[in-house]
Amino acid sequence: xxxxxxxxxxxxxxxxxxxxRNYVAHAKEMGSQILSEPVVFLKPTSALLHAGEAIRxxxxxxxxxxxxxxxxxxxxxxxxxxxxxxxxHVAGYALGLDLTARDVQxxxxxxxxxxxxxKGFDGAAVLSDFVPVEALPNPAAVSFDFYIDGERxxxxxxxxxxxxVATLIAWISSRFTLQAGDLIYTGTPEGxxxxxxxxxxxxxxxxxxxxxxxxx
Length: 216
Ligand code: MG
Known about the structure:
Elements: E1 3-6, E2 9-12, E3 16-20, H1 24-29, E4 39-43, E5 48-50, E6 64-66, E7 68-74, E8 90-98, E9 100-101, H2 102-111, H3 116-120, E10 125-127, E11 131-132, E12 143-148, E13 151-157, H4 165-175, E14 183-185, E15 193-194, E16 200-205, E17 209-214
Parallel strand pairs: 3-14, 5-10
Antiparallel strand pairs: 1-2, 3-4, 6-9, 6-15, 7-8, 7-14, 8-10, 8-11, 12-13, 12-16, 16-17
The structure holds magnesium ion (MG).
């Protein structure tokens, strides 16, 4: 059972919401468009992989991609949360990787099938440690980077999100009951690509987050 501690408060991880197509340039590189409402899917809690753990690639995919994302931890649940009140529901922020078996996802897309296997396998929800909400007072003005073996592969400016953190919380809570301990992976910028065994991955957010993961 996964637990995340922020400001001495422990949260049992509940639902893991993930947002697809939230940065225009990434939607374009995937041949899609930003829609008028967020595209949301779920990962199982068994997919969680925390800082310090090694990433093991599934044997049944030949093309697992990194998607570096800002991740939100919810401290207080709710239904139909207004945008103006949304950030009061946030306990903290982390960086994460929405690991995606791109070959399996492409097959699923073609067949009109769910993405659950492509995005929900063990270790597919990678997480850094969390920083408390006070450390990022404006989540719409944050930049972060993703590196493989020291080379930068993704750079995000959260102001480029189609749906910002507050809007995502409001929208998700209008369709699902949001609960304390829920996570929201807020989508990836452009630059996604494959990861390989032997590589070292690194997620960096200013001076606040620096998380490394070995792929084995
Ligand atoms: Mg993603």
